[in-house]
From TrEMBL:
InterPro entries: SecB (IPR003708), SecB-like_sf (IPR035958). This is Protein-export protein SecB. Homotetramer, a dimer of dimers. One homotetramer interacts with 1 SecA dimer. One of the proteins required for the normal export of preproteins out of the cell cytoplasm. It is a molecular chaperone that binds to a subset of precursor proteins, maintaining them in a translocation-competent state. It also specifically binds to its receptor SecA. It is found in: Cytoplasm. Keywords: Chaperone, Cytoplasm, Protein transport, Translocation, Transport. GO terms for biological process: protein folding; protein tetramerization; protein transport. Pfam families: SecB (PF02556). Belongs to the SecB family. SUPFAM superfamilies: SecB-like (SSF54611). It comes from Marinobacter psychrophilus. GO terms for cellular component: cytoplasm. One of its GO terms (molecular function) is unfolded protein binding.
Length: 168
C-alpha cells in the first residue's frame, strides 16, 4: 500500500509545473570606443540609447535557452563615446506549463532574471573603458511582452481584414 501511494505521489509531482534556472552565461560581448581618446576631452553629458531584444530556443524536451540582447550607445552630440553589445543567456528547465504560460515565462520572466547580469557586465565594461559608471534602469519585461502580444494580435486582425476584403 505504501509503495502505491509513493508511486501516485511521484506521478503527481511529474504533473506539477517545474521551473529551474540551470545556467547563466555571456554568449557574446563587445565594447567599442571609436573616438577615444579625444572623446575624453569633451564635457560628459551623453545621450544614452538602449536597444533590447529577447529570443528563445528549445535545447531539449524541457530545456530552453533564453537570450537577452542589449546594445547601449552613448554619444556626445554626434560623436560616439562608446557602444556596448551583450547577449546575456541562460538555460532554463520548464516543465508542466501550458503553452501560453510557457511563452510568457520565456518572453518576460526569464529575461527579468537575466537583466541584472547583463546590467552588471555593461557597467563593468563601461568602467574598464574609463567612462563614468552606467547603471541601467530596471526594465518591465511583462509590459514589453504584453505590447508584443498586442502588436501580434493587431497584425493578425489586419491580415484577416485584408484577406476578407480580397475574397469579397
Amino acid at each position: 500500500m505504501a509503495e502505491n501511494s509513493q508511486a501516485a505521489a511521484g506521478n503527481e509531482n511529474k504533473n506539477q509545473p517545474q521551473f529551474a534556472m540551470q545556467r547563466i552565461y555571456v554568449k557574446d560581448l563587445s565594447f567599442e570606443s571609436p573616438n577615444a581618446p579625444t572623446v575624453f576631452q569633451d564635457q560628459w553629458k551623453p545621450q544614452v540609447n538602449l536597444d533590447l531584444n529577447t529570443g528563445h530556443s528549445k535545447v531539449s524536451d524541457n530545456q530552453y535557452e533564453v537570450v537577452l540582447s542589449l546594445t547601449v550607445t552613448a554619444k556626445i552630440e554626434e560623436k560616439v563615446a562608446y557602444i556596448v553589445e551583450i547577449q546575456q543567456a541562460g538555460v532554463f528547465l520548464v516543465n508542466g506549463v501550458e503553452p501560453q504560460q510557457l511563452d510568457h515565462m520565456l518572453g518576460a520572466y526569464c529575461p527579468t532574471i537575466l537583466f541584472p547580469y547583463a546590467r552588471e557586465a555593461i557597467d563593468n565594461l563601461v568602467g574598464r573603458g574609463s567612462f563614468p559608471a552606467l547603471m541601467l534602469a530596471p526594465v518591465n519585461f511583462d509590459a514589453i511582452y504584453a505590447q508584443a502580444l498586442q502588436r501580434k494580435q493587431e497584425e493578425v486582425t489586419a491580415a484577416e481584414a485584408t484577406s476578407d476584403a480580397k475574397t469579397h
